[in-house]
Amino acid sequence: METESCPRFGRRVLPDTIRLVASGTRHAGLREVLERWLDKYAGKDWESRHVDSRILLKFFPKMEQAAKDFVVILENNIVTLMEEKLTEAQKKHVKAVGVPVVFYSTAGVRDFHDWYRDGFFIAIRAAINQPTNTKGYKLFTNPEMTRPITGAEEGLYAFLTLNHLTKRLSEDSVFCSRGADGTRRCRNDLAGVVEVGGASAQLVFPVDDSDILPSFVKPVNLQAERLLPESYPIAGVVSVSFMQLGVASSAGLFLKQLCSTEQFLRDGVCYNPCFFEGYEQPCSAGEVTIDKNGKASVSEDIRKNRLKPIGTYCSQNNPEIGMKATNELQCRANGIDPQQPLQKRLEFSNCSKIVGTGDFETCHAQIERLLISPRLPLPANIEAASSGFESVGHVFSFASSRSPMVITGGAMVASIRLLQKVELLSSPFEGNASELERAAKTFCSSPIVRDGAGAVIEVGKHQVKLDALNHDICKTMAVNVSLLEHMETADKRPTSITWEKSVVDDDGREVADLGWQVGAVLQLVLDPGRWSRMAYQTGWAHNL
After folding, report:
1. Per-residue pLDDT reduced to its tens digit, 272-300
2. Is residue 284 in a domain?
């Protein structure tokens, strides 16, 4: 990114010059690192018994070493990208001013209880501020740039990313103009976003000052919170994040709830309306693989069980459960008994296998009942409930917007693209719930055919190979339908609804993926005073 220095105003970052240099290598997640540390120093099966976290403080030096090992891999990745992508002149400049590191954790460890997560971040910050590379790059960070973020923050950063990349927040935006007197005027055409990740889902959209909202709804003023400068469009934004509604976490929780219901569990067989007819798998929320013959198997590795995070959270040894009856009730309402050991919490009682029925109407009804508008908040949703929204259904009942809405997330977008590919959904698709429901009903009722090449889903003249990514895609389609229905029945309907995974420029080249990452950088650099203090006045030299 580039900067400019103006008399009396100091140096500021030019947001339009922020560029994605490259994507780094994906490494072990923070949750995996923390769980390995606990396995070693708290002992195996720590999730099923009381552990005195104060005693584990004596092993903090071991956590510091784990953080150093983690950061060395990260640092090597950063340095390699710098060496490959920067010119020699740019390298000299970067080495002189230092490399600020923004490192945030999101829903993957948001529900990790006790001091372990925050302690690990202390160790990570210390490791980043002691760079070990031999190329002369001086990495540095601080508690503002390296920390866990809340769900609401994650949503706001995704909102900033979308509106920045689509030029709604650009100084040269087509949504802004200058009057005859030179005054810059901007229409508030900011877009909302529904971001569905692996562990959580965020709903963020602007609301008008004239909107009459319930007293508990407190829109975030982007200028007052210093997320945007005063020169940008004034905006009040509703930002809500729901744990357990990410693609992976919701898949595990949905199976657990469904297969605990008498209506769908008969004689040891769980009949899942969101699986294709002819599909079978063992009764488990483990990671699914499908072999070349089309047979599904499930990993027995607890770390790969999609119920593992919520199963760990819903433990009587977690103070949030043991000391709060409402939180325990939420776990029990979802078929998880906090008194049981972890293995029992992850099991499907009295279930031998799961069989698909391909009944999309029933699938949609159960998704709405269990995930979108549950009677009680889903577990680990203290943040959302404290903001007044206990479910996605509540959000659109109490607040709504006419702003364009973009739904993002790999699985959410893939489900729409797949229906378009098999010619069941119009292209472009304008977000009509009835049209999507009809298309999904036809697709999900299609039979699975097995031949020598494996298993395929036959949809008219099209064949779709069954794999680990699409075996439960009907669940995602049902989530999309429910979202559209709630938007359509709200007081205000979005002017447009689209599904996008990334933003492309006028030449069709991908600029960057949607998500919270670009917004996280923006909210730091758009405040010149704060950024100057962090990056220049108290940069790498401050950490010597």
Report:
1. 999 999 999 999 999 999 998 889 999 99
2. no
